[in-house]
């Protein structure tokens, strides 16, 4: 431990030196007065300081973890990869295409929406000095991502023919779509599409890459250490170094943060986050829309009485959404409107917010002959808050005369037997932040098992049409129409969107500027 | 029977047990709801994708055939590769098992002398002290490990801030680089072990004290430390070693819980991760290794007890 403290103190001294050199004698004079500064954050207008090593903790894997993020399922895998490798781009509502490009300069879409042209940013260099070309993009997309079994890459594979991607010269890649889509930039530039050097098969320490940091140390199941890559394209990180640690337990992550062993803790449980509220040394930095996780209940339309739209509506009206936000998340969440993907450009925000109307719910159940019905809600602790939400939902249902009960599965069970999950009459689940229409087309259209009996070819067609429309206003209208049908007749109750409850030491700044704050790459973070 | 014959016979027995138990573990993973497909293919994979993954992992073959393949490899020292990350199981064992053995070793080093002292004290004195220690031990033994861990954390890490909350070990280092991080896990495990061992030892000590030989010694005026060291301990040593051996066995289960609470990079945490992911080769490899360790400990305990027992001439 003392060794660590020494090194930390040393780094801090180094950082102070760097700052002094950067801002000149004025600050040196200020420092020499030895006055403790009450606020360590750079004020508005002042530029963030450079230097220091930021230590952050995430849920990672065990000793069988590898550096291959195309096959790595944990949060830490993606964060580590984002620090290490180049990104196609991130979502950025202020950007002209709604994205901020990384190793690309831009993406053109053919008039018939059948092919996307990716323009490589010239002059992006790997750490071995070689220049990034279309061959590297092709290898990353066609050879590595196309074979990945992870949902993030399946979303791309469900929309693009990754295997048929072709280079057009050194700086262009042509990527055919599987069906005409106009919203593909949003899928490719979600911050999780990463680029490595052509021919990369074995991911190992010391291999060349082009992310903001260079990997210097990796211990499976424990973490990784990085140093800044000074020739990083665009924006060179302010930090000298980065240490990513694997700490599985939420309270343990919070404990490591308050005791100063780490500077950033990812994804805390609502209760743990609340215990940090009174601690002056740390601050909560929840993710913002669209990086919110939807917490939902799926009603199985192949099971009676959920085949009756009145019963489904009654269940949606019975939920006291505000109470869930208040009690489960201590106010740190947003009310949902029974549709996923809030905050994405294709989300139907114009639909009215569904009311809490237990009286009407009771009437509807009576009309459908389902008053006094019995139902068991199955869920598990797959994400913080899910079980608590289910408990409240069951109470709400009892108030409208449903004999409801909760069955809580142990961790890791809910999705382990997927066919059994998809056959449940009522299941508590969650949705990752993914654009609304693409996730519909991938997971709900065509009677997919995860659709829980929703089979509406007219809506499927509408979604396909909306996505194949390059006129944005018209696309939005069609997309909203499709989501209205889901909202009115659908089988999903989605009462709450919760942020990833992250927390950081007060001396940390700029993590959110990395844009993909759900899984930050720390390229713009700084330490005061 | 000579010691050698005894060891050989016990080794053969242990080998048979190991085979039976590894088959039982395999059967248990086979009946767990769900398989590795969801972990590997992703929650929302289509049926076709799931089938492809199942075939790729060999999960479409009969369980008995898979077990035979695995066992054939295991005999050659090849425990296969995990489904998740595809790292050789033996690699994972090599990096994690030593950390757990360190934890167990330290725990035993704390527990054994303390348990002997407390066992002697309560077994010989009886009365109020005995009732106090025995009741405390009983309560301690009944408290789940994670509750105990939480209490220790609340006091020593959160309130007094003298120990780290989690075992954050420097990258590329071992737990020995941060001795402070070992204190809370060892303390938790020791408390559990001590509770169990003290109660077992108390019984052997009072049994030994009730032997006619000790009775005679006492009547001859042998008292206190001399009685304990010269007469009680030699008689109680055999059963005491067996008690400690059993305690060590119980520690394996506690270690899984404690390693998870403190995020300690041991084999117990790996086992938990592997079960959650339905990573069958990993679960199988780790569980079998743990069974092997356990059998080795039991065998060692029996040998020690026998060696000690051979000297207990006074009793016979």
From TrEMBL, chain A:
Gene Ontology molecular function: any one: peptide transmembrane transporter activity
Region (Disordered): 32-52
Keyword vocabulary terms for this entry: Signal
Secretion signal, residue range per the UniProt entry: 1-29
Solute-binding protein family domain residues: 102-418
Record-level GO BP terms: peptide transport
Keyword Signal: yes
Residue ranges, compositional bias (Low complexity): 43-52
One Gene Ontology cellular component annotation held by this UniProt entry: ATP-binding cassette (ABC) transporter complex
PANTHER family recorded: MONOACYL PHOSPHATIDYLINOSITOL TETRAMANNOSIDE-BINDING PROTEIN LPQW-RELATED, PERIPLASMIC BINDING COMPONENT OF ABC TRANSPORTER
Protein name: ABC transporter substrate-binding protein
Native source organism of the sequence: Streptomyces nodosus
Automatic annotation (TrEMBL), chain B:
Membrane topology: Multi-pass membrane protein
SUPFAM superfamilies associated with the record: MetI-like (SSF161098)
Localisation per UniProt entry: Cell membrane
Location of the ABC transmembrane type-1 domain: 97-301
TM region(s), chain numbering: 101-124, 136-160, 180-201, 240-262, 282-308
GO biological process: transmembrane transport
One cellular component (GO) term of this entry: plasma membrane
The keyword Transport is annotated on this UniProt entry: yes
Keywords tagged on the record: Cell membrane, Membrane, Signal, Transmembrane, Transmembrane helix, Transport
PROSITE patterns in alphabetical order: ABC_TM1
Signal peptide stretch: 1-27
Membership in a protein family: Belongs to the binding-protein-dependent transport system permease family.
Annotated PANTHER family: DIPEPTIDE TRANSPORT SYSTEM PERMEASE PROTEIN DPPB-RELATED (PTHR43163), PEPTIDE ABC TRANSPORTER PERMEASE PROTEIN (PTHR43163:SF3)
Name of this protein: ABC transporter permease
Source organism: Streptomyces nodosus
